[in-house]
Amino acid sequence: MIDTNPFSHCECRRMGNSQTLCRSELTLEEQGKKVCLSVRGGEEAKVLVLDGCVFTDNNPKCDALYLYKSRNRKIAALVELKGAGDIPHAFEQLTYTKRQRPEYAQLKNQLDQSGPGTLFEKSFIVTNGMLSKPEIERLENQHQIRVSAVLHSEPGKF
User: Are 45 and 61 a contacting pair, CB within 8 Å?
Assistant: First the structure.
């Protein structure tokens, strides 16, 4: 079981979400950018809204945290949904969340303690903008963070 206390009120739910970023239990959407995680049998996942729920201050923060657990691995995946012109700021938000937020460290530690398996940390940017590979590498080096993927998401009607 993935423990998100004391932040369980920030989880996306199948129905009755109080967080505007949540579309369903494992789906986030903001201004046309959408990300969804699918799980198979024997896997478990939760998504928590960080910006405006876990973190309510004015310091940098990313939008959400996916917590995933299977039999032999666990993943804490930070997600930033970002407009095309502000992708460099997403790197700053991910870095600050990963390195400066004790709440993130607590949730990551709780996931790690939830059972056997290796814990992996990942970072994702979901955007309708595009960056070249050299530009992504420059931003990763500048912020000293590895982003697993800059995922392209076109606005659409959902």
Answer: no
**The pLDDT of residue 134 is above 80:** yes
- Cα of 155 vs its chain's centroid, Å: 19
Contact 82, 125 (CB under 8 A): yes
CA 99/CA 105 separation, integer angstroms: 8
pLDDT one-digit tens code per residue, 10-37: 999 988 888 999 999 999 998 888 899 9
CA distances from 62 to 42, 100, 114 (A): 28, 12, 24
Instruction: Give the span between the Cα atoms of 95 and 114, in whole angstroms.
Output: 25
Q: Which residues contact 41 (CB under 8 A, 6 or more apart)?
A: none
Helix (H, G, I), strand (E, B) or coil at 27: strand
Max Cα-Cα span within the chain: 42
Cα distance between residue 69 and residue 115, in whole Å: 9
> Does pTM top 0.90 for this prediction?
yes
